[in-house]
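Lab meeting, action items carried over

1. Structure of the two-component assembly. Owner: GW. Status: complete.
Input record:
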Amino acid sequence: MTPGFSYRRAASIKDAVTGISEGNGRILAGGTDLLGCLRDSVFTTNMVVSITGIKELKRIDETPGGGLSIGALATITEISESPVIRERYPALAQAAAEVASPQLRNQGTIGGNLCQKPRCWYYRGEFHCLRKGGDRCYAVAGENHYHCIFGGNGCYIVHPSDTAPALIVYGAEATIAGPAGMRKVSLENFFVPPAKEVTKETVLEAGEIVTAIVLPPPLAGLKSSYRKIRSRQSWDFALAGVALALRTSNGRVTDARIVLSGAAPVPWRLVDAENALIGKVPDPDSAKYTAALSVKDAQPLKHNAYKIPLFKGLIEEEVVNISQA
Amino acid sequence: MSSDADKHECSCGKGLTRRQFLTSAGAGALIVTASGHLGKDQEASAAVIKSGEETKITLLINGKQFQMLVEPRWSLLYVLREELGFTATKEGCGRGECGACTVLIDGMPRYACMTLAVEAEGVEITTVEGLMKGEDLGPVQKAFVEHDAFQCGYCTPGQIMAVEGLLRKEPDPTVGQIRQGVSGNLCRCGAYPHIIDAARRAAEMKKSGAL
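Predicted assembly:
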Protein backbone atom coordinates (compact mmCIF):
# COMPACT_ATOMS: atom_id res chain seq x y z
CA MET A 1 0.00 0.00 0.00
CA THR A 2 1.21 3.47 -0.86
CA PRO A 3 2.17 5.60 2.17
CA GLY A 4 -0.51 8.10 3.12
CA PHE A 5 -0.63 11.62 1.72
CA SER A 6 -3.05 14.49 1.58
CA TYR A 7 -4.54 15.18 -1.82
CA ARG A 8 -5.44 18.42 -3.47
CA ARG A 9 -7.06 18.65 -6.85
CA ALA A 10 -5.79 21.87 -8.38
CA ALA A 11 -8.35 23.94 -10.25
CA SER A 12 -5.78 26.13 -11.98
CA ILE A 13 -2.05 26.43 -12.58
CA LYS A 14 -1.90 29.07 -9.85
CA ASP A 15 -3.69 26.72 -7.48
CA ALA A 16 -1.19 23.94 -8.31
CA VAL A 17 1.76 26.24 -7.65
CA THR A 18 0.23 27.27 -4.32
CA GLY A 19 -0.42 23.61 -3.49
CA ILE A 20 3.12 22.34 -4.00
CA SER A 21 4.63 25.42 -2.38
CA GLU A 22 3.14 24.32 0.92
CA GLY A 23 5.15 21.62 2.66
CA ASN A 24 6.89 19.15 0.35
CA GLY A 25 4.15 18.88 -2.22
CA ARG A 26 4.46 16.73 -5.34
CA ILE A 27 2.66 17.05 -8.63
CA LEU A 28 0.46 14.20 -9.83
CA ALA A 29 -0.13 14.03 -13.59
CA GLY A 30 -0.05 10.51 -15.06
CA GLY A 31 1.18 9.25 -11.70
CA THR A 32 3.22 6.40 -13.16
CA ASP A 33 6.49 7.64 -11.71
CA LEU A 34 5.14 9.40 -8.61
CA LEU A 35 3.32 6.36 -7.23
CA GLY A 36 6.31 4.10 -7.90
CA CYS A 37 8.65 6.52 -6.10
CA LEU A 38 6.31 6.80 -3.10
CA ARG A 39 5.89 3.03 -2.83
CA ASP A 40 9.64 2.50 -3.08
CA SER A 41 10.31 5.30 -0.54
CA VAL A 42 12.53 7.12 -3.03
CA PHE A 43 11.05 10.24 -1.47
CA THR A 44 8.11 11.07 0.76
CA THR A 45 5.45 13.70 0.47
CA ASN A 46 2.71 15.01 2.70
CA MET A 47 0.76 16.58 -0.19
CA VAL A 48 -0.01 15.28 -3.64
CA VAL A 49 -1.32 18.00 -5.93
CA SER A 50 -3.25 16.66 -8.89
CA ILE A 51 -3.12 18.80 -12.01
CA THR A 52 -5.20 16.42 -14.14
CA GLY A 53 -8.29 18.62 -13.90
CA ILE A 54 -6.55 21.62 -15.53
CA LYS A 55 -7.85 21.39 -19.07
CA GLU A 56 -5.52 23.98 -20.60
CA LEU A 57 -2.54 21.74 -19.81
CA LYS A 58 -3.89 19.03 -22.13
CA ARG A 59 -3.83 21.07 -25.32
CA ILE A 60 -1.54 20.61 -28.30
CA ASP A 61 -1.71 23.90 -30.22
CA GLU A 62 0.09 25.37 -33.19
CA THR A 63 1.75 28.63 -32.20
CA PRO A 64 1.31 31.84 -34.24
CA GLY A 65 4.92 31.63 -35.43
CA GLY A 66 4.47 28.16 -36.95
CA GLY A 67 5.74 26.17 -33.99
CA LEU A 68 3.88 23.90 -31.61
CA SER A 69 2.94 24.14 -27.96
CA ILE A 70 2.42 20.83 -26.19
CA GLY A 71 0.64 21.02 -22.85
CA ALA A 72 2.41 19.24 -20.01
CA LEU A 73 -0.54 16.85 -19.63
CA ALA A 74 -0.49 15.65 -23.25
CA THR A 75 -0.07 11.89 -23.00
CA ILE A 76 2.83 10.06 -24.59
CA THR A 77 0.29 8.22 -26.80
CA GLU A 78 -1.20 11.53 -27.95
CA ILE A 79 2.27 12.77 -28.88
CA SER A 80 3.22 9.57 -30.72
CA GLU A 81 -0.02 9.67 -32.71
CA SER A 82 -0.41 13.40 -33.35
CA PRO A 83 -0.44 13.94 -37.13
CA VAL A 84 1.26 17.34 -36.82
CA ILE A 85 4.05 15.95 -34.61
CA ARG A 86 4.56 12.94 -36.85
CA GLU A 87 4.85 15.17 -39.89
CA ARG A 88 6.86 18.07 -38.52
CA TYR A 89 8.77 16.63 -35.54
CA PRO A 90 9.15 12.93 -36.46
CA ALA A 91 11.95 12.23 -33.97
CA LEU A 92 9.61 13.27 -31.15
CA ALA A 93 6.79 11.04 -32.40
CA GLN A 94 9.25 8.14 -32.80
CA ALA A 95 10.68 8.69 -29.32
CA ALA A 96 7.21 8.83 -27.77
CA ALA A 97 6.24 5.58 -29.52
CA GLU A 98 9.29 3.89 -27.93
CA VAL A 99 8.44 4.92 -24.37
CA ALA A 100 7.55 2.12 -21.94
CA SER A 101 4.37 0.12 -22.69
CA PRO A 102 1.02 1.00 -24.31
CA GLN A 103 -0.62 1.31 -20.88
CA LEU A 104 2.04 3.67 -19.59
CA ARG A 105 1.96 5.72 -22.80
CA ASN A 106 -1.81 6.10 -22.40
CA GLN A 107 -1.29 7.30 -18.85
CA GLY A 108 2.07 9.07 -18.75
CA THR A 109 2.42 12.68 -19.79
CA ILE A 110 5.14 14.66 -21.55
CA GLY A 111 5.66 16.78 -18.44
CA GLY A 112 6.13 13.64 -16.37
CA ASN A 113 8.42 12.05 -18.92
CA LEU A 114 10.75 15.05 -18.62
CA CYS A 115 10.51 15.31 -14.82
CA GLN A 116 10.72 11.58 -14.00
CA LYS A 117 13.24 10.35 -11.46
CA PRO A 118 16.25 8.29 -12.55
CA ARG A 119 16.05 4.51 -12.77
CA CYS A 120 19.37 3.62 -11.13
CA TRP A 121 18.57 0.54 -9.04
CA TYR A 122 20.57 1.85 -6.09
CA TYR A 123 18.67 5.14 -6.18
CA ARG A 124 15.36 3.27 -6.46
CA GLY A 125 16.40 0.69 -3.90
CA GLU A 126 17.18 0.91 -0.23
CA PHE A 127 20.45 2.75 -0.63
CA HIS A 128 20.94 6.19 0.83
CA CYS A 129 23.01 7.26 -2.14
CA LEU A 130 24.55 10.60 -3.04
CA ARG A 131 21.52 11.64 -5.05
CA LYS A 132 19.28 10.97 -2.06
CA GLY A 133 21.51 13.04 0.19
CA GLY A 134 23.86 10.24 1.25
CA ASP A 135 27.63 10.17 1.03
CA ARG A 136 28.38 7.84 -1.85
CA CYS A 137 27.31 6.44 -5.20
CA TYR A 138 26.85 2.70 -4.88
CA ALA A 139 26.99 2.18 -8.64
CA VAL A 140 30.67 3.12 -8.94
CA ALA A 141 31.87 -0.09 -7.32
CA GLY A 142 28.63 -1.98 -7.87
CA GLU A 143 26.45 -3.33 -10.63
CA ASN A 144 26.82 -0.55 -13.17
CA HIS A 145 25.79 -2.25 -16.40
CA TYR A 146 23.10 0.35 -17.09
CA HIS A 147 24.89 3.44 -15.90
CA CYS A 148 26.45 6.35 -17.74
CA ILE A 149 29.53 6.56 -19.92
CA PHE A 150 29.47 10.35 -20.17
CA GLY A 151 29.04 13.13 -17.60
CA GLY A 152 29.29 10.97 -14.49
CA ASN A 153 30.55 13.04 -11.61
CA GLY A 154 29.94 11.50 -8.22
CA CYS A 155 26.65 10.09 -9.50
CA TYR A 156 26.44 7.81 -12.53
CA ILE A 157 22.76 7.63 -13.46
CA VAL A 158 21.54 7.82 -17.03
CA HIS A 159 18.68 10.13 -17.85
CA PRO A 160 15.66 7.88 -18.50
CA SER A 161 13.64 10.02 -20.93
CA ASP A 162 13.29 9.14 -24.62
CA THR A 163 11.41 12.31 -25.49
CA ALA A 164 13.96 14.73 -24.00
CA PRO A 165 16.74 14.11 -26.58
CA ALA A 166 14.20 14.38 -29.39
CA LEU A 167 12.87 17.67 -28.05
CA ILE A 168 16.40 19.03 -27.67
CA VAL A 169 17.33 18.41 -31.30
CA TYR A 170 14.44 20.69 -32.27
CA GLY A 171 15.44 23.41 -29.79
CA ALA A 172 12.33 23.03 -27.61
CA GLU A 173 11.70 25.15 -24.54
CA ALA A 174 9.90 24.31 -21.32
CA THR A 175 7.36 26.81 -20.03
CA ILE A 176 7.52 26.86 -16.25
CA ALA A 177 5.03 28.35 -13.78
CA GLY A 178 6.06 29.18 -10.25
CA PRO A 179 5.46 31.47 -7.30
CA ALA A 180 7.35 34.26 -9.12
CA GLY A 181 5.37 33.87 -12.34
CA MET A 182 6.19 32.22 -15.64
CA ARG A 183 9.60 31.59 -17.16
CA LYS A 184 10.98 29.73 -20.13
CA VAL A 185 14.00 27.46 -20.15
CA SER A 186 15.56 25.80 -23.16
CA LEU A 187 15.24 22.03 -22.69
CA GLU A 188 18.94 21.75 -23.32
CA ASN A 189 19.45 23.71 -20.09
CA PHE A 190 16.51 22.17 -18.22
CA PHE A 191 18.39 19.16 -16.87
CA VAL A 192 20.95 19.46 -14.09
CA PRO A 193 24.19 17.45 -14.35
CA PRO A 194 25.57 15.95 -11.12
CA ALA A 195 28.70 18.09 -11.42
CA LYS A 196 26.46 21.09 -10.79
CA GLU A 197 24.05 19.71 -8.20
CA VAL A 198 23.84 16.02 -7.47
CA THR A 199 20.43 15.90 -5.76
CA LYS A 200 18.49 17.67 -8.54
CA GLU A 201 17.50 16.40 -11.97
CA THR A 202 15.90 19.56 -13.33
CA VAL A 203 16.17 23.32 -12.87
CA LEU A 204 12.69 23.43 -11.31
CA GLU A 205 12.75 25.35 -8.03
CA ALA A 206 10.38 24.81 -5.12
CA GLY A 207 6.82 25.49 -6.20
CA GLU A 208 7.57 25.36 -9.93
CA ILE A 209 5.84 23.13 -12.46
CA VAL A 210 6.26 22.55 -16.18
CA THR A 211 3.12 23.73 -17.97
CA ALA A 212 4.05 23.29 -21.63
CA ILE A 213 6.78 22.40 -24.10
CA VAL A 214 7.15 24.82 -26.97
CA LEU A 215 8.74 23.72 -30.22
CA PRO A 216 9.98 26.31 -32.71
CA PRO A 217 8.90 25.92 -36.35
CA PRO A 218 10.87 23.07 -37.94
CA LEU A 219 13.71 24.21 -40.20
CA ALA A 220 12.86 23.70 -43.86
CA GLY A 221 14.44 20.51 -45.15
CA LEU A 222 15.45 19.24 -41.72
CA LYS A 223 15.58 15.45 -41.45
CA SER A 224 15.29 13.97 -38.00
CA SER A 225 14.91 10.64 -36.24
CA TYR A 226 15.08 8.89 -32.88
CA ARG A 227 16.32 5.34 -32.47
CA LYS A 228 16.45 3.37 -29.25
CA ILE A 229 18.29 0.18 -28.41
CA ARG A 230 17.20 -1.83 -25.39
CA SER A 231 17.95 -5.27 -24.08
CA ARG A 232 14.63 -6.58 -25.34
CA GLN A 233 12.37 -5.30 -28.08
CA SER A 234 9.68 -3.76 -25.93
CA TRP A 235 9.00 -2.05 -22.61
CA ASP A 236 12.40 -1.08 -21.38
CA PHE A 237 14.55 1.94 -20.88
CA ALA A 238 17.25 2.75 -23.42
CA LEU A 239 20.63 1.08 -23.27
CA ALA A 240 21.47 3.53 -26.00
CA GLY A 241 19.37 6.03 -27.89
CA VAL A 242 20.10 8.76 -30.37
CA ALA A 243 18.05 11.69 -31.55
CA LEU A 244 19.49 13.08 -34.74
CA ALA A 245 18.62 16.06 -36.89
CA LEU A 246 20.45 16.99 -40.10
CA ARG A 247 19.94 19.59 -42.77
CA THR A 248 21.88 19.62 -45.99
CA SER A 249 22.40 22.14 -48.75
CA ASN A 250 23.86 21.06 -52.10
CA GLY A 251 24.54 17.67 -50.57
CA ARG A 252 26.55 18.99 -47.63
CA VAL A 253 25.50 19.21 -43.99
CA THR A 254 24.65 22.74 -42.85
CA ASP A 255 23.00 21.95 -39.50
CA ALA A 256 23.45 18.96 -37.23
CA ARG A 257 22.15 17.96 -33.82
CA ILE A 258 23.04 14.73 -32.05
CA VAL A 259 21.59 14.10 -28.58
CA LEU A 260 21.90 10.78 -26.74
CA SER A 261 19.71 8.97 -24.25
CA GLY A 262 20.94 6.21 -21.96
CA ALA A 263 24.39 7.78 -22.08
CA ALA A 264 24.70 10.39 -19.34
CA PRO A 265 22.92 11.79 -16.28
CA VAL A 266 21.31 14.34 -18.59
CA PRO A 267 20.36 14.10 -22.29
CA TRP A 268 23.82 14.26 -23.83
CA ARG A 269 24.50 16.57 -26.73
CA LEU A 270 27.58 15.85 -28.85
CA VAL A 271 28.64 19.28 -30.04
CA ASP A 272 32.07 18.19 -31.34
CA ALA A 273 30.57 15.44 -33.43
CA GLU A 274 27.89 17.81 -34.73
CA ASN A 275 30.54 20.33 -35.78
CA ALA A 276 32.56 17.61 -37.47
CA LEU A 277 29.59 16.86 -39.71
CA ILE A 278 29.12 20.45 -40.87
CA GLY A 279 30.28 20.88 -44.44
CA LYS A 280 30.59 17.12 -44.99
CA VAL A 281 28.64 14.90 -47.34
CA PRO A 282 26.68 12.61 -44.99
CA ASP A 283 28.05 9.40 -46.49
CA PRO A 284 29.29 6.20 -44.79
CA ASP A 285 32.79 7.67 -44.37
CA SER A 286 31.69 10.81 -42.58
CA ALA A 287 29.19 8.75 -40.56
CA LYS A 288 32.03 6.50 -39.39
CA TYR A 289 34.21 9.47 -38.52
CA THR A 290 31.38 11.20 -36.66
CA ALA A 291 30.57 8.02 -34.71
CA ALA A 292 34.19 7.56 -33.65
CA LEU A 293 34.38 11.19 -32.53
CA SER A 294 31.10 10.79 -30.63
CA VAL A 295 32.50 8.27 -28.18
CA LYS A 296 36.04 9.58 -27.86
CA ASP A 297 35.38 11.12 -24.42
CA ALA A 298 33.48 8.15 -23.02
CA GLN A 299 34.49 7.02 -19.54
CA PRO A 300 32.96 3.62 -18.98
CA LEU A 301 32.57 1.96 -15.60
CA LYS A 302 33.46 -1.67 -14.93
CA HIS A 303 30.39 -3.24 -16.53
CA ASN A 304 29.17 -0.79 -19.16
CA ALA A 305 31.97 -0.48 -21.71
CA TYR A 306 29.68 -2.35 -24.12
CA LYS A 307 27.85 0.95 -24.53
CA ILE A 308 30.80 2.44 -26.45
CA PRO A 309 30.56 0.21 -29.53
CA LEU A 310 26.78 0.27 -29.14
CA PHE A 311 26.59 4.06 -29.39
CA LYS A 312 29.26 4.11 -32.06
CA GLY A 313 27.38 1.67 -34.25
CA LEU A 314 24.07 3.36 -33.58
CA ILE A 315 25.29 6.83 -34.52
CA GLU A 316 27.07 5.55 -37.62
CA GLU A 317 23.95 3.74 -38.82
CA GLU A 318 21.63 6.61 -38.07
CA VAL A 319 23.72 9.23 -39.89
CA VAL A 320 23.65 7.02 -42.98
CA ASN A 321 19.95 6.15 -42.58
CA ILE A 322 18.84 9.73 -42.16
CA SER A 323 20.83 10.99 -45.11
CA GLN A 324 19.24 8.33 -47.29
CA ALA A 325 15.72 8.91 -45.93
CA MET B 1 -17.82 -21.78 -23.34
CA SER B 2 -21.57 -22.29 -23.42
CA SER B 3 -23.78 -20.27 -21.16
CA ASP B 4 -24.98 -23.52 -19.57
CA ALA B 5 -21.53 -24.24 -18.22
CA ASP B 6 -21.68 -21.10 -16.16
CA LYS B 7 -25.15 -21.64 -14.80
CA HIS B 8 -24.30 -24.42 -12.39
CA GLU B 9 -25.74 -23.54 -9.06
CA CYS B 10 -23.31 -22.96 -6.28
CA SER B 11 -23.19 -25.38 -3.37
CA CYS B 12 -24.77 -22.83 -1.07
CA GLY B 13 -28.07 -24.02 -2.51
CA LYS B 14 -29.52 -20.57 -2.80
CA GLY B 15 -29.88 -20.72 -6.55
CA LEU B 16 -27.11 -18.25 -7.24
CA THR B 17 -24.63 -18.77 -10.04
CA ARG B 18 -20.99 -18.79 -9.03
CA ARG B 19 -20.54 -15.40 -10.63
CA GLN B 20 -23.58 -13.88 -8.95
CA PHE B 21 -22.40 -15.24 -5.64
CA LEU B 22 -18.91 -13.78 -6.02
CA THR B 23 -20.26 -10.45 -7.18
CA SER B 24 -22.73 -10.11 -4.34
CA ALA B 25 -20.22 -11.31 -1.78
CA GLY B 26 -17.76 -8.67 -2.87
CA ALA B 27 -20.25 -5.86 -3.13
CA GLY B 28 -20.08 -5.13 0.59
CA ALA B 29 -21.30 -1.78 1.77
CA LEU B 30 -21.43 0.11 -1.43
CA ILE B 31 -24.25 1.82 -3.15
CA VAL B 32 -24.99 0.87 -6.72
CA THR B 33 -26.95 3.34 -8.74
CA ALA B 34 -28.18 3.20 -12.29
CA SER B 35 -25.84 4.29 -15.03
CA GLY B 36 -26.38 7.93 -15.80
CA HIS B 37 -24.86 11.36 -15.54
CA LEU B 38 -21.14 11.29 -14.91
CA GLY B 39 -19.98 14.83 -14.23
CA LYS B 40 -17.93 15.72 -11.21
CA ASP B 41 -19.72 17.69 -8.56
CA GLN B 42 -16.61 19.53 -7.53
CA GLU B 43 -14.88 20.17 -10.82
CA ALA B 44 -13.25 23.44 -9.77
CA SER B 45 -12.77 22.70 -6.11
CA ALA B 46 -9.32 22.78 -4.60
CA ALA B 47 -10.42 21.25 -1.31
CA VAL B 48 -7.76 19.19 0.38
CA ILE B 49 -8.49 15.61 1.42
CA LYS B 50 -6.26 14.98 4.40
CA SER B 51 -4.07 11.90 4.63
CA GLY B 52 -6.04 9.01 6.10
CA GLU B 53 -9.39 10.75 5.62
CA GLU B 54 -11.95 9.24 3.31
CA THR B 55 -13.83 11.12 0.65
CA LYS B 56 -16.91 10.12 -1.32
CA ILE B 57 -16.30 9.35 -4.96
CA THR B 58 -18.42 7.95 -7.76
CA LEU B 59 -16.88 5.51 -10.20
CA LEU B 60 -18.46 4.32 -13.43
CA ILE B 61 -17.48 0.69 -13.81
CA ASN B 62 -18.84 -1.56 -16.55
CA GLY B 63 -21.73 0.84 -17.11
CA LYS B 64 -22.82 1.08 -13.48
CA GLN B 65 -22.15 3.84 -10.99
CA PHE B 66 -20.64 3.00 -7.63
CA GLN B 67 -20.44 5.49 -4.79
CA MET B 68 -17.96 4.84 -2.03
CA LEU B 69 -15.56 6.33 0.45
CA VAL B 70 -11.87 6.19 -0.41
CA GLU B 71 -8.56 7.39 0.97
CA PRO B 72 -6.44 9.50 -1.40
CA ARG B 73 -3.68 6.88 -1.46
CA TRP B 74 -5.92 4.01 -2.59
CA SER B 75 -5.24 2.79 -6.09
CA LEU B 76 -8.02 2.00 -8.51
CA LEU B 77 -6.80 -1.60 -8.37
CA TYR B 78 -7.25 -1.76 -4.61
CA VAL B 79 -10.75 -0.29 -4.83
CA LEU B 80 -11.79 -2.61 -7.66
CA ARG B 81 -10.64 -5.74 -5.88
CA GLU B 82 -10.90 -5.06 -2.18
CA GLU B 83 -13.80 -2.61 -1.98
CA LEU B 84 -15.96 -3.60 -4.93
CA GLY B 85 -15.16 -7.27 -5.53
CA PHE B 86 -14.11 -6.94 -9.17
CA THR B 87 -11.54 -9.62 -8.59
CA ALA B 88 -10.85 -10.45 -12.23
CA THR B 89 -8.41 -7.55 -12.22
CA LYS B 90 -5.22 -8.93 -10.67
CA GLU B 91 -2.39 -7.45 -8.70
CA GLY B 92 0.95 -8.64 -10.02
CA CYS B 93 3.88 -6.33 -9.46
CA GLY B 94 1.98 -3.33 -8.10
CA ARG B 95 4.45 -1.06 -9.88
CA GLY B 96 3.30 -0.69 -13.47
CA GLU B 97 5.50 -3.36 -14.95
CA CYS B 98 3.53 -6.58 -15.42
CA GLY B 99 0.12 -5.58 -16.78
CA ALA B 100 -1.98 -7.99 -14.65
CA CYS B 101 -4.09 -5.02 -13.46
CA THR B 102 -4.85 -3.67 -16.94
CA VAL B 103 -8.30 -2.12 -17.24
CA LEU B 104 -9.78 0.14 -19.90
CA ILE B 105 -10.19 3.78 -18.99
CA ASP B 106 -12.29 5.57 -21.58
CA GLY B 107 -11.59 2.59 -23.83
CA MET B 108 -7.80 2.71 -23.45
CA PRO B 109 -5.71 0.14 -21.56
CA ARG B 110 -4.11 1.50 -18.41
CA TYR B 111 -2.60 0.07 -15.26
CA ALA B 112 -5.08 0.20 -12.37
CA CYS B 113 -2.21 -0.14 -9.88
CA MET B 114 -0.72 3.15 -11.04
CA THR B 115 -4.04 5.02 -11.05
CA LEU B 116 -5.44 6.58 -7.89
CA ALA B 117 -9.12 5.87 -7.28
CA VAL B 118 -9.73 9.58 -6.62
CA GLU B 119 -8.38 10.24 -10.11
CA ALA B 120 -10.74 7.74 -11.74
CA GLU B 121 -13.91 9.79 -11.31
CA GLY B 122 -15.61 10.98 -14.47
CA VAL B 123 -14.16 8.29 -16.74
CA GLU B 124 -15.52 4.98 -17.97
CA ILE B 125 -13.78 2.02 -16.37
CA THR B 126 -14.06 -1.40 -17.98
CA THR B 127 -12.86 -4.61 -16.36
CA VAL B 128 -13.01 -8.18 -17.65
CA GLU B 129 -16.38 -8.54 -15.92
CA GLY B 130 -17.62 -5.78 -18.23
CA LEU B 131 -16.80 -7.82 -21.34
CA MET B 132 -19.36 -10.46 -20.40
CA LYS B 133 -22.66 -10.58 -22.26
CA GLY B 134 -24.76 -11.70 -19.36
CA GLU B 135 -23.36 -15.11 -18.52
CA ASP B 136 -21.65 -15.49 -21.92
CA LEU B 137 -18.05 -14.67 -22.60
CA GLY B 138 -17.20 -11.74 -24.88
CA PRO B 139 -15.30 -12.35 -28.14
CA VAL B 140 -11.80 -11.72 -26.74
CA GLN B 141 -12.47 -14.04 -23.82
CA LYS B 142 -13.84 -16.71 -26.18
CA ALA B 143 -10.81 -16.41 -28.43
CA PHE B 144 -8.48 -16.87 -25.45
CA VAL B 145 -10.34 -20.06 -24.51
CA GLU B 146 -10.34 -21.32 -28.12
CA HIS B 147 -6.62 -20.74 -28.52
CA ASP B 148 -5.59 -21.94 -25.09
CA ALA B 149 -3.92 -18.58 -24.58
CA PHE B 150 -2.90 -19.16 -20.97
CA GLN B 151 -1.51 -21.69 -18.58
CA CYS B 152 -1.82 -20.50 -14.98
CA GLY B 153 -4.22 -17.74 -16.03
CA TYR B 154 -3.02 -15.06 -13.65
CA CYS B 155 -2.03 -12.58 -16.35
CA THR B 156 -5.04 -13.46 -18.52
CA PRO B 157 -7.51 -10.74 -17.43
CA GLY B 158 -4.83 -8.12 -18.10
CA GLN B 159 -3.92 -9.68 -21.44
CA ILE B 160 -7.59 -9.77 -22.44
CA MET B 161 -8.07 -6.10 -21.53
CA ALA B 162 -4.93 -5.14 -23.48
CA VAL B 163 -6.28 -7.00 -26.53
CA GLU B 164 -9.76 -5.53 -26.05
CA GLY B 165 -8.25 -2.03 -25.92
CA LEU B 166 -6.14 -2.71 -29.00
CA LEU B 167 -9.12 -3.98 -31.01
CA ARG B 168 -11.26 -0.98 -30.07
CA LYS B 169 -8.55 1.24 -31.52
CA GLU B 170 -7.38 -1.01 -34.35
CA PRO B 171 -10.06 -3.53 -35.34
CA ASP B 172 -7.82 -5.36 -37.83
CA PRO B 173 -4.34 -5.40 -36.30
CA THR B 174 -1.24 -6.88 -37.86
CA VAL B 175 0.83 -9.34 -35.84
CA GLY B 176 3.28 -6.48 -35.21
CA GLN B 177 0.49 -4.30 -33.83
CA ILE B 178 -0.71 -7.15 -31.62
CA ARG B 179 2.80 -7.66 -30.27
CA GLN B 180 2.93 -3.94 -29.53
CA GLY B 181 -0.56 -4.03 -28.04
CA VAL B 182 0.29 -6.72 -25.48
CA SER B 183 3.87 -5.58 -24.91
CA GLY B 184 2.87 -4.10 -21.56
CA ASN B 185 1.65 -7.46 -20.25
CA LEU B 186 3.99 -10.13 -19.00
CA CYS B 187 3.11 -13.84 -19.11
CA ARG B 188 5.34 -15.88 -16.86
CA CYS B 189 4.08 -19.11 -18.44
CA GLY B 190 5.18 -17.88 -21.85
CA ALA B 191 1.86 -18.28 -23.64
CA TYR B 192 2.69 -15.40 -25.97
CA PRO B 193 2.27 -17.24 -29.32
CA HIS B 194 -1.21 -18.37 -28.29
CA ILE B 195 -2.09 -14.91 -26.98
CA ILE B 196 -1.18 -13.44 -30.36
CA ASP B 197 -3.24 -16.10 -32.16
CA ALA B 198 -6.15 -15.40 -29.82
CA ALA B 199 -5.94 -11.68 -30.53
CA ARG B 200 -6.13 -12.34 -34.28
CA ARG B 201 -9.09 -14.66 -33.75
CA ALA B 202 -10.81 -12.11 -31.53
CA ALA B 203 -10.43 -9.50 -34.28
CA GLU B 204 -12.12 -11.87 -36.73
CA MET B 205 -14.90 -12.69 -34.29
CA LYS B 206 -15.55 -9.03 -33.62
CA LYS B 207 -15.54 -8.21 -37.32
CA SER B 208 -18.00 -10.94 -38.15
CA GLY B 209 -20.20 -9.80 -35.28
CA ALA B 210 -19.91 -13.17 -33.54
CA LEU B 211 -20.40 -13.00 -29.83
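2. GW to write a short summary for the group page. Key points so far: The radius of gyration of chain A is 19 Å. Chain A touches chain B at residues 1-11, 15, 19, 28, 30-32, 35-36, 39-40, 46-48, 50, 52-53, 77, 100-104, 106-107, 234-235 (CB under 8 Å).
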